[in-house]
Amino acid sequence: MESIEAAALARNDRYLREFVEALDLCPFARRCREMGRLARRVLPGGRPIESTAAAVGDLERTREDEVEVALLIYPEFAGGVRAFEEFRGEVRGFLQLFHCVAFHPDLPMDLANANRAVSFLRRAPDPTLQLVRIATLDRVRSGRPAGSVYLDASELSLDELRSLQRPPSVSEQIAEANFRTLQRHDPQRLADLLARFR
Fold it and tell me: Using the 8-state DSSP alphabet, how is residue 32 labeled?
C-alpha cells in the first residue's frame, strides 16, 4: 500500500510536470527542479502547525544554492480554502527568508482576467504552501525599475507623459503570459486534468 507521503508526492509530480511545466506557467519551475533547488515536504495531519514550524526552521537554515523554492504539502489538511489561507497566515509568522502563497484544489476557476485567473492556476492536488526565497525573487527582479520617480509634469509633452507608464512587474508579466496560455486551451479540459491529479 502506497504511503500518504508517496501518494502526495506522486500527485504533486504530475501537477508540476503535466500542468505547470507542460504549459510553461512558471518560467523558473523546471530549472529550479532540475538544479535540485526545489524542496518538498509532506506534512500529514489535520492542522500540523508544529511540524510545519519545524520544516520552516529547517528550510530557513538552507542556502539559496540549496533551496530556492519549497513546497509544503498537506494531504490531510482539515478545512477548506478559507481555513487553509488562515493557516498560511500563521505559517508566515515563522518565515524570514521566504515569501509564502497558498495553493489549494478548491480554488475558484475565475478566468475573467489575468489577476483572477491566478487562483485557477494554483489548484494543486493537495493544499500546498509554496515558499519562494526572497533573495531569489530579488535576483529575478534585479534590473527592473522599482520605487517612485518624481518629475515635473509641466515640462513634459502629452506623448512623453504617456510613455512614462510603469513597466509590468515580473509577476504581472507571468500572469499575463499565463492568461494568454489559458485562452489558447480549453479551460474545462484543464480543470478536468487538475481534477484527475487529485
Answer: H
Provide the whole-model pTM: 0.82
Three-state DSSP at 49 gives: helix
Q: Residue 133 — φ and ψ, nearest 5°? A: -60, 130
Give strand pairing partners of 70: 39, 131
Within 13 Å of residue 190, how many CA atoms lie on the same side as its CB?
A: 23
Q: Which candidate, 54, 71, 24, places its Cα nearest to that of 178?
A: 24
Element holding 87 (H helix, E strand) = helix 81-92
State how far the Cα of 185 lies from the Cα of 148, in Å rounded to an integer.
38
Give CA–CA dist 156/154, Å, rounded: 6
Structure-block grid coordinates of residue 6 = 508517496
Query: All 3 cell numbers of residue 158?
Result: 502629452
In order of 34, 93, 134, the CA distances from 56 in angstroms are 22, 10, 14
pLDDT tens for 43-98 read: 999 999 999 999 999 999 999 999 999 999 999 999 999 999 999 999 999 999 99
The answer to whether 88 touches 129, Cβ cutoff 8 Å, is yes
Residue 103 forms beta bridges with which residues?
128
The DSSP H or E segment spanning 170 is helix 170-184
Mean of all residue pLDDT scores within the chain: 86
- For residues 169 and 147, give the distance between their C-alpha atoms in angstroms, rounded to a whole number: 12
Residue with cell 527592473: 144
